[in-house]
Amino acid sequence: MALPRLSRSFTGLLVETSCLIHQRTFRVSTVAAAIQKLTRVRVVDNSSLGNTPYHRSPRVIHVYTKNGIGKVGDKVLLAIKGQKKKALIIGHKMPGECMTPRFDSNNVVLIEDNGNPTGTRIKVPIPTQLRKMEGDYSKVLAIASSFV
Amino acid sequence: MAACSKRLDKFIVSLRLLRNLQLQNERFLSTSLCRWAPGNDSEPPKFIPPSKPVIIDKTQAVATLRKFLSPEFIPPRQRTNPLKFSMERKDMIRRRKILNVPEFYPGSILAVSMADPNATGKINRFVGICIQRGGKGLGATFVLRNIINQQGVEICYELYNPRIQKIEVLKLEKRLDDNLMYLRDALPEYSTVDPDMKPVPFPPTGEVPLNELKVKMRPKPWSKRWERPKFNIQGIHFDLCLVPKQMEHAQKWAQPWQEYDMLKEYDTSKLEQQILSEVQQEMSK
């Protein structure tokens, strides 16, 4: 019984099992992803761009990874106040590995193209696994106030 | 005669009072006399409080220690070989001999020190309220929740992970439910724990205190529909956030036949006693 290939990029795809007697369908949802395109995100540093109110919340429009899923330490492109800005993911709501913290909001820090953070201070606690990650995050870690 | 006896009584009472007063004065005098340091007129005498009296209640028998078996020791009802569970128990006891895993329940406040290669000083300390205990055997986990700098943080720790250096129970208490995941949708004051909290001492005998706190929730929508009977939550103050009509609507998802389902029964009392005696024996070696 060859089951049809399930493409996971569409939500709510109905799949029919090729059984002659019963016709049962089941739904397939997208892979639970941490931060992907069009997620609303919370900017945590004290930059003016991140903190001034706007009628639309900052959204992710591109994730710079091989698959379109962003976890802690990945760079993303945000649309804030009608402009495009790069940002670094600091914490997400999806549970990660065991012993790593899970935050109640998707936190992000605005970043320039060379990796320098836009703001000068991060009040929110930051996971310690950022230290070991590849990529020069030393300047972001320097402005962090507390680690979890 | 009666008047005379009354006056006599009064006289005796007043005598007694005078004697008591005298005695009291003598007591004060005697203690202060003893405590004066010899030849120290420049400094005032330091007040040393009298020693507290030790009350030994001989009427009460020696109270027994509270028996507690960690829930991850109880094997799930599966078709696996019981040898697997006994081997796992041996490994768990070996780890427990090195690291003291105290007794705690969902709702207690814990502080966990974990070895972190990324952290400064190599040790990462996190204080939080335990919202869930899950897993069986060596993969047993518990989730701690706290709110730091107005950001809610949850960490899922593995009990038997060698990275854990120390587990301290700062406050031992039980709540009305086993699973406090609804704290994510409750007001933040219910999840905040002071990281510099001093440990509250609790006696090893007697019942664990039950905190009958009913939590106030944020406005809906919540992450899960906690009012539904499948979660069976006692610890939320539903009267403040839900109308009786909504509560009735939630009861539509009730499955009242489940409590009569005999195939779902899993009586662990005998198994628990057997495992508890085994574990206590092994730990005392």
TrEMBL record, chain A:
SUPFAM superfamilies: Ribosomal protein L14. One of its GO terms (cellular component) is ribonucleoprotein complex. Pfam families: Ribosomal_L14. One of its GO terms (biological process) is translation. CDD domains: Ribosomal_uL14. One of its GO terms (molecular function) is structural constituent of ribosome. It comes from the Eukaryota. Belongs to the universal ribosomal protein uL14 family. This is Large ribosomal subunit protein uL14m. It comes from Amphiprion percula (Orange clownfish).
TrEMBL record, chain B:
InterPro entries: Ribosomal_bL19, Ribosomal_bL19_sf, Translation_prot_SH3-like_sf. SUPFAM superfamilies: Translation proteins SH3-like domain. One of its GO terms (cellular component) is mitochondrial large ribosomal subunit. Keywords: Mitochondrion, Ribonucleoprotein, Ribosomal protein, Transit peptide. It holds the Pfam family Ribosomal_L19. PANTHER family: LARGE RIBOSOMAL SUBUNIT PROTEIN BL19M (PTHR15680:SF9), RIBOSOMAL PROTEIN L19 (PTHR15680). This is Large ribosomal subunit protein bL19m. It comes from Amphiprion percula.
